Queue: 2 jobs
Job 1
Amino acid sequence: MGKLELNKKKKKDALFTTAFELFTTKGLAKTTISDIVDQAGVAKGTFYLYFKDKYDVRNKLISHKTGELFYHAHEALARTDICDFEEQVHFIVDYILTELDRDHTLLLFISKNLSWGIFKGAFEEKMPDEDYHFYQSYLDMLSKSRVTYENPELLLFTIIELVGSSCYSCILYQQPVPLVQYRPYLHASITAIMKTFEATPA
């Protein structure tokens, strides 16, 4: 990465970091673009090089934060000897749940603003100095599976929706039960979903 690219990345990272801090403390409605650029120490023109408005930075920030979560889960998975696709999915789900349980601010921010369209943006999020794309990684894992699944994108959507919606209350409010009690039921449900998507042998 050249000096110019490094400088651009530094400014964009500063905007992301500042926007996340302001959105999670002041709220989106009370945060202005001037607030973001002043605190980040960059010119307003620099902001518009990367983002259309504060809603655009919010959407890209969600994609970025979600992409980071999956990237770190992927890194952790690479350090294991887990080869079975279903076990890999369970590992990634567990890793992400643990991270969100540890960082409630991140959980609140992602859950409050997440939509499937934005989430798909996270699939394409390129991690710093890496050629990692979560969705491509997911397809690569799937291609090595001994089991064939119909409609891989719909399978992923169903698992993500289940994990996101059902664990929000368990993590933040311990309702209807704490996450530690809910995890076995969640994993059993994921296994059942994956079974539903298995392709019928020809």
Note: Residues 54-78 form the longest helix (25 residues).
Job 2
Amino acid sequence: MNKKTTDTREKILSTAEQLIYQNGIHATGMNLLVKTSGVARKSIYRYFATKDDVAAAALNERDERWMHWFRTESDKGDTPQDRILNMFTVLRGWFESEGFRGCAFINTAGEVGNPDDPVRQIAKLHKQKLLDYTLELTEQLNIGQPVALARQLLILLEGAITMSYVMGDCSAADSAKDVAKILLEQASS
């Protein structure tokens, strides 16, 4: 692919991701994508066969970027325990950022009824990556049940994201962090 091709494709995906995060998949039609991106409908269809293909590609891009950002920021802690607790600090910063609208993957998965739909599969993969990262950290703690702790921490992470968005309460990350401290203490004893 040449530079122009890559730039056009990236512009389509970037715009689609923003629109989907802002409005949802169903409210993001091709007319809005054309108008907002400035890319002709014919050009969009040159890269993607359907709107669903655009949405799936945009969500895959978001997954890669979000996970890289989250890991990089969380990994700034010195110890595995620090990195685990730092996940909640990182979430708090995200919750306070302009345009925060909750988790794009939870939001879009909720719009799709079929569990085999590509959007649901992408959301599931994203959550699996988050669990895998959490498990990677809990396995470094030298505790008896790292899988159980990773699953509990994932519930706290997801709950904090949902509560922050639905209730408009950024301190949900702090509350989840307090519970995570208790779980870490229990796992270490």
Note: The radius of gyration is 18 Å.
